[in-house]
Specification:
Layout lengths: L1 E7 L5 H9 L16 E6 L3 H10 L3 E3 L2 E6 L18 H5 L3 E7 L15 H33 L4 H18 L11 H7 L10 E6 L12 H10 L2 E5 L1 H7 L4 H10 L6 H12 L2 E7 L3 E8 L4 H8 L1 H5 L1 E8 H6 L4 H7 L3 E3 L9 E7 L2
Parallel strand pairs: 1-4, 1-5, 3-9, 5-6, 6-7
Antiparallel strand pairs: 2-4, 8-9, 10-11, 10-12
Helix pairs in contact: 1-8, 4-5, 4-7
The structure holds guanosine-5'-triphosphate and magnesium ion.
Magnesium ion binds next to helix 1.
Length: 365
């Protein structure tokens, strides 16, 4: 199960954005909640191809791909030094595979700003600094343990390597740079995977606007320049408005979206961007019994796809029968016709699965 953690300053609209995505109806208040228990909800990944396959196969059961979103308490300036709630709850962030970082752009006099002014770039830096600070803490703990051991006996070659790498990473973080900007080899990435570093996680910046901020927003320019420079991705949402939007009937919603020149609801946009950011693709299994969308990392092989369905399928893997969704549709949704046209293929273990592949695993255990 894929998890996405929502971070940001207090009162930036995290729970609002969480509600836009999940329709879960989490509490939204004009004062800092101080809640330490996160809100969690599972969301189906909207996918028109999946819907079409369900129409075609009319299966007894259907299961779209899903992602879990976790909404946390606000992260204040100096949380790492014990201010606000402190950073103990950052453990909830550590278990997420990706971060949505909500930044307040909206002006709303009835909602106090913890820094007393609207300044998206400053706010983004405050939260980023807290994430960096937390990673530094993790590193210094590990370093002191390694140093202790080194004083008593010789380190294994692996530990010595780890020590060197962690020292480099520490210097990088002390420079106020996130670990995602540090070039790591695949082997080093594996070495570090157990630490769950927050600044190594892919991050999508969610700019939370008021519905009056439709044109150029002057306050936003500095942050947008920084995002471009760092190659970070951002999405704009009209948090409060889009949360209301989710509660309207479809016709009114359409009208409302036109007024704001939104083409895709914030909900779909955010889920799609999060999915893309994580380098995720979907493949489908389909039949009269069940149509199901599965999530896979880009670059995964057929045998890995089999393993996400069931470990038996990976163990006894013989071949994968594959047809691209587009080819399937172009051939009147007929497997026989796909076979005749040669677009239905038999692939081996090492085949790299493509987004939209329809797969049937042949196996023997
Ligand atoms: N005008 C306007 N108000 C908003 C917007 N987004 C959120 N708010 C208001 O800001 C207040 C805080 O929103 P929440 O979503 O609870 O913020 P939060 O980041 O979850 O807050 P904490 O969990 O307490 O840190 C609420 O009163 C919202 O109605 C927005 O886009 N525009
Ligand atoms: Mg909240």
């Amino acid at each position: 199960m894929l998890k996405c953690g929502i971070v940001g300053l207090p009162l930036s609209g995290k729970s609002t954005v969480f509600n836009v995505i999940t329709r879960a109806g989490a509490e939204v208040k004009p004062y800092a909640s101080g809640k330490t228990e996160p809100n969690r909800a599972l969301v189906n990944v909207p996918d028109a191809r999946f819907d079409r396959l369900v129409e075609i196969f009319k299966p007894r059961s259907e299961k779209p791909a899903d992602v879990e979103f976790v909404d946390l308490a606000g992260l204040s300036r100096d949380a790492g030094k014990g201010a606000g709630l402190g950073n103990s709850f950052l453990s909830f962030v550590a278990e997420s595979e990706a971060l949505l970082h909500v930044v307040r752009v909206f002006k709303n006099d009835s909602v106090p700003h913890p820094e007393n002014s609207i300044d998206p770039l400053r706010d983004w830096h405050i939260v980023e600094a807290e994430l960096i600070y937390r990673d530094l803490g993790v590193i210094s703990n590990r370093l002191s343990r390694l140093d202790e051991k080194k004083a008593k006996k010789k380190l294994t070659p692996q530990e010595a390597q780890e020590l060197d790498l962690l020292k480099e990473l520490e210097a990088h973080l002390l420079d106020e740079k996130p670990l995602r900007e540090f070039p790591l080899t695949e082997e080093q990435k594996r070495m570090l995977s157990g630490f769950a570093f927050l600044t190594l996680k892919p991050e999508l910046v969610v700019l939370n606007l008021d519905d009056t901020q439709t044109g150029e927003v002057a306050e936003l320019a500095p942050l947008e320049a920084e995002m471009t420079a760092k190659g970070l991705k951002s999405v704009k949402v009209y948090g409060a408005t889009e949360m209301e939007l989710e509660q309207l009937d479809p016709e009114d919603r359409e009208e409302f979206m036109k007024d704001l020149s939104i083409t895709e609801p914030g909900r779909d946009r955010l889920i799609h961007e999060a999915y893309k950011l994580l380098g995720l693709i979907s493949f489908f299994t389909s039949g009269q019994d069940e149509v199901r969308a599965w999530t896979l990392r880009e670059g995964s092989t057929a045998v890995e796809a089999a393993g996400t369905i069931h470990s038996d399928l990976a163990r006894g893997f013989i071949r994968a029968q594959v047809v691209a969704y587009d080819d399937f549709i172009a051939n009147n949704a007929s497997i026989a016709q796909c076979r005749d046209k040669g677009v239905l293929r038999l692939e081996g273990k090492e085949y790299i699965v493509k987004d939209g592949d329809m797969i049937e695993i042949r196996f023997n255990v």
